[in-house]
Every structure is written in C-alpha cells, then in structure tokens.
Amino acid sequence: MLAERGTGWGTVLSGYWPIKGEPDLRPALADLHRAGVTIALPVVESRAAPLTFRRWTPETGLVRGDWSIPIPPPEAEVLRPDIALAPRIGWDGACFRLGWGGGYFDRTLAVLVTIGIALGAAHLPTIFPQPHDIPLNLILTEDGVAAEGPESRTHR
Fold it and tell me: Distance (Å, rounded) from C-alpha 27 to C-alpha 33?
C-alpha cells in the first residue's frame, strides 16, 4: 500500500518490534521492505532523549536494546522516518495514546507523521492526556481507521 502511493507518503517507514502482546507487524514490514519501502526501527539511545531510528531489513541481525527489545545494531544506518507506526496499549477518540510509560514516543512524535497501531478493544473513553502528550495523526485497528487526529484532518 505505501509503496504504491509514491513519495508523497515518504520513503522511510518506522515500524516496531512487538512486546507484551502488541500487534505484530513484522510480516507486513517484511512485505513493505520487499516492495521497496525503507524500514527503520526505533532505538532508545538515551533515556531522556527522543528515539533514534535505524535501518532494518529482514536480514538484519538484531541486538538487545532497552527493555530487551530487539533493535538494529549500532552500525546500522540512522534514518529519519517520514511515517512512524507506534504500538498502543490504549487509545482514545482524540488520537491520544497510552504507552508503556517511558515517554520515548512522546519526545519523538512532534516531528513525525505517526500512526498508532492498536486493537479495537483497547479503546478508552479518554486517557486523561497530560500537557506533554501529543495526539497521533491516525489510529489503525484490525477494522481500519478508528480515529483521526487534528493534524490528519487538516492535511487532506
């Protein structure tokens, strides 16, 4: 899908390595890579800084990163994604996300088009967003687009 849309959607997509029951997009990331989309995975370089993103291919030998999450090795190319997919453990209709509490995506979201990936059953009436929380552009569930953030509504 992204590869067919051309460069208007960007050429670098950040996925994620699933943990704790998050939706597993690894097969889709491999398919997108084969279709010509450049894939990056998020890496925690410093606990108080935004995420770094490193190139990933299905052949990349991964190492253990923060929380023992597999990540590309330090020598993998650092990229700036045009679109980032971010796992959710909860979400609301205003496109605010509930994550694991590290704040890594919150420090990174402001400069990326970000699509939250969540299960429909994880919808909450509100997550009681804090002043530092930034809404996502879209929330996708197993049923498709579940919510659109204010930025995605104005850029159509």
Answer: 10
Residue owning tokens 């997550």: 127
pLDDT in tens, 46-62: 777 778 899 999 999 99
pLDDT at 1 over 50: no
Q: Hey, what are 90's tokens?
A: 């909860």
**Overall CATH class of domain 82-156:** alpha beta
Chain centroid offset of residue 52 CA: 12
CA torsion sign for 19, 142, 138, 54 is: positive
pTM (predicted TM-score)? 0.70
First vs last Cα of the chain: how many Å apart?
18
3-state secondary structure at position 12: strand
Cα-to-chain-centroid distance, residue 109? 9
Residue 119's alpha-carbon distances to 116, 128, 130, 152, in angstroms, are: 10, 19, 22, 20
Cα angle, residue 26 at apex, residues 19 and 29 outer, rounded to 5°: 135
Residue 154 C-alpha from the chain's centroid:
21
Give pLDDT, residue 153: 43
Kindly list the domain boundaries of the chain, sorted by start residue. 23-80, 82-156
Three-state SS at 33: helix
